[in-house]
Predict the 3D structure of the following.
Amino acid sequence: MILEATASMKEPCCQQVKRFSFYCLILGLLAFPTSSFAAYFSGPPEVLAALQFNSQGEVVFDSQDISQSSQQAQADALASPPAIDPYSDEAIEEGDPFGDDAENESDFEEDDPFADEEKEIANIPDPLERWYNRPVYAFNDHFYEYFLRPVAQTYKDLLAENFRIMIRNLYYTITFPIRLVSSLLQFKFEESGRVVSRVLINCTLGFLCMVDVANEGFDIKPVDEDFGQVLGFYGIPSGPYLVLPLLGPSSIRDGVGRAVDALLNPLFWLVPDFATGAGVTAEQMVNETSFYIEDIKALKEGAIDPYISLRDFYNQRREILIDE
């Protein structure tokens, strides 16, 4: 032990920096963005939850409500004059009974939110699915179920949500160079200005950068940019789908982007040693996972094949972010 310590003291400074950078790069690549598992899933519609079904799967209504509604409908029919038959000659002479003439159709198209053609997003190729991606996905799932989820659930029970949000805001503010550089490389100067403004406001008025005063007080929305989006902006294709150990869904292009993002992360250069960096990354991982435990559960219970659902939603989400 003494000889090893003496040898490490004699090690040149440049070699120590290189070794430190290598460890930090590995640590950055092992950052676990658990939010990607369920960031695109919402709860079931309330109207479906309000319906009642019998054993055959048919909707059951209250007979008293049906009788009251039928009586009311009969009373309204007697009180109002009979409507014109829309298929009769009289109705046709008065005009289009269905309102589907040319003028009404143009008005409908102007109000139709789905009238614009949406860009069709091609499926991401997955040649590594059988022999690599699915085994790694299974490993990540076991890691989550038997380690990360119990720890995150206990963490969630012990810490109030407001405190966990403050920790999330702190990490988000520290990593602002990733979003700033990525915005500038895509010539998104408005977003770059928002990044700088948010940092200045939250670091001065936001209680050590832990309160998002910029958003809550000045309506300056957060920016979601990374180097993977920069590569997509310049036309670099995503390449095959790739599931990274502990990292989750990615692609060849986004994997390279993650490595650059790790170098742009100030924590890469500020952590004094590997143990401290691992502790910071683990805390960030657990804190972020605590927000998505129920969403991940809903994904697994609702999807026929969670692997395919996660892959498709990841691909669609990344393409949407690049096009924005």
Observations:
- The longest strand covers residues 241-244.
